[in-house]
Design a protein that fits this description.
- The chain is mainly α.
- Helices cover 68% and strands 0% of the residues.
- Helix 2 runs antiparallel to helix 6, helix 4 runs parallel beside helix 7 and helix 5 packs across helix 8.
Length: 200
C-alpha cells in the first residue's frame, strides 16, 4: 500500500514537511497520534504512567529519525513500529508488580460498567483492552483502529500474515462473546430493577 501525497494534510505529507525540520508540522503529527499511540502502548504495558512515558519517548525518537522515513511506507506504520519495539523493551525490563499493585481481575469496571452499553465504540475498545490477550488487542486495534492491512501489521509486529489473521479471528470471536454476555447481564439487571417492588 502506497500512501498518496496529493493531500497536503495527509499524515505522509505532514511527515515529509516535518522531516525537513518543520516543528509546527511535527506538532500536528503529535496531536494526531498522541491519543492512539498511548492506547496502543497501554495495551502492551498495561500501566498508564509507563504508557505515557513510552509515548513521549517514541515521539522523541520519531523526531530524531524522521529524516530516515520514506513515504513509500505509511507514517502511522513507521511510528507504531517504534512504539511496538519500545513497549517490548519496557516489558523485558519490567519488574513483577507487588500483589497490591497488580492489575484488577477481569471483573473490573472496564468489563462491567464501561461496557454497559456495548454499542459505544470507546466502551468496546475498553472491553477489548481489559479482556483480550495483548497480542490479540494489538492486532485488533491496528486493523480496525488504525486501518492497517494484515501485511502492515505482520511487518510491524514481526510475525507472519497467517498469525495476524488467526489473532484477528480469535479476538473477534472472543469479543463478540463478551459483548453478548454483557448485554445479557445488562438486560437482566434492568429487568430486576424494573420488577423489584419499591419499599413502602
Amino acid at each position: 500500500m502506497y500512501p498518496t501525497l496529493a493531500d497536503p494534510d495527509s499524515d505522509e505529507s505532514v511527515a515529509l514537511r516535518a522531516a525537513s525540520g518543520s516543528h509546527p508540522d511535527f506538532a500536528v503529527l503529535v496531536k494526531r497520534f498522541q491519543g492512539p499511540l498511548f492506547r496502543f502502548i497501554l495495551s502492551r504495558v498495561r500501566r498508564a504512567e509507563e504508557a505515557e512515558d513510552i509515548a513521549q519517548q517514541c515521539f522523541v525518537q520519531a523526531w530524531k529519525h524522521l529524516p530516515r522515513w520514506r513515504p513509500e511506507a505509511r507514517f502511522s506504520t513507521w511510528l507504531y513500529t517504534i512504539a511496538h519495539r519500545a513497549a517490548l523493551n519496557q516489558l523485558r525490563r519490567a519488574v513483577p508488580l507487588p500483589l497490591e499493585e497488580a492489575p484488577e481481575p477481569s471483573t473490573n469496571h472496564h468489563a462491567g460498567n464501561d461496557c454497559e452499553r456495548a454499542d459505544n465504540s470507546s466502551q468496546i475498545w475498553d472491553l477489548a483492552r481489559s479482556e483480550l490477550p495483548a497480542n490479540q488487542h494489538e492486532a485488533l486495534w491496528l486493523f480496525y483502529g488504525e486501518d492497517l492491512s494484515v501485511e502492515e501489521i505482520a511487518a510491524l509486529t514481526g510475525t507472519g500474515k497467517s498469525l495476524v489473521k488467526i489473532r484477528l479471528f480469535r479476538a473477534r470471536i472472543k469479543l463478540k462473546s463478551l459483548i453478548a454476555r454483557l448485554d445479557r447481564r445488562t438486560a437482566t439487571s434492568a429487568l430486576l430493577r424494573f420488577t423489584t417492588p419499591s419499599r413502602p
